[in-house]
Design goal:
Part of the binding-protein-dependent transport system for glutamine; probably responsible for the translocation of the substrate across the membrane. This protein is an all-alpha fold. 82% of the residues lie in helices and 0% in strands. It has a single domain (2-221), classed as MetI-like (MetI-like fold, Orthogonal Bundle), CATH 1.10.3720.
Length: 223
């Protein structure tokens, strides 16, 4: 037990590097704050575009959604950060991470919102049109509010996954929480900073995970 505490719960090592961990936490939060709204808006735009049922456009949009969902986000980040400079587009690590995470998650959010929109009965759309509402007004005032409510549980679950995905930014040497913990470990020759980073993730995300579980149970009860 003493050996475990010395190697994984070493308070002296933690006190030496906690400013580095706090800096990494700030960057992780910033990544999540930037990428989450971008992914949501991008995905919502894809779902709304699909709702107009243009055959050619839908083939392209659904193909895009399937592609970005199937493409590993880690590979996407590497291609953006190391591949685009070969074409003359050099991006910072932060920009590359934001773009990779947003591209990947827009596909998931797009499919979530698309499923929510398609779950609304056609009768409600026809009723809105009979009241003289145009297509975009029917979508904005009738379809989207109901679709978003039905999609709340998978939406929250994917948001949680997005926050955890921010750790891939360590691959491009961006000093987010995981990268900072690894640097701290190298400075202290002790894995305690990695344990601290894991504990920070759990403390931050566990309440959100419990909320997602509640939403999923409520969604199952309403079926």
């Amino acid at each position: 037990m003493e050996l475990f505490a010395e190697n994984f719960l070493n308070l002296d090592s933690l006190l030496q590097v906690y400013p580095l961990l706090l800096q990494g936490l700030q960057l992780t939060v910033l990544l999540a704050v930037v990428t989450l709204p971008l992914s949501i808006l991008w995905g919502l735009a894809l779902a709304i575009a699909c709702s107009f049922h243009n055959r050619v456009l839908n083939i392209f949009l659904i193909g895009y959604i399937d592609f970005v969902r199937a493409f590993p986000v880690v590979v996407l980040l590497v291609l953006i950060f190391y591949g685009l400079p070969l074409l003359g587009f050099k991006l910072s690590g932060f920009t590359a991470a934001v773009l990779a995470i947003a591209l990947n998650n827009s596909g998931y959010f797009g499919e979530i919102f698309r499923a929510g929109i398609e779950s609304i009965p056609m009768g409600q759309i026809e009723a809105g049109r009979s009241l003289g509402l145009r297509g975009r007004h029917v979508i904005a005032l009738i379809i989207l509010p109901q679709a978003l409510r039905k999609a709340l549980a998978p939406f929250a679950s994917n948001s949680l996954e997005l926050v955890k995905t921010t750790s891939i930014a360590a691959l491009v040497a961006l000093p987010e929480l995981l990268r900072s913990a690894r640097v701290a470990q190298e400075q202290t020759y002790n894995p305690t900073p990695l344990m601290a980073a894991a504990a920070i993730y759990v403390v931050l995300l566990w309440p959100f995970a419990r909320w997602v579980a509640v939403l999923e149970r409520r969604a199952q009860m309403q079926r």
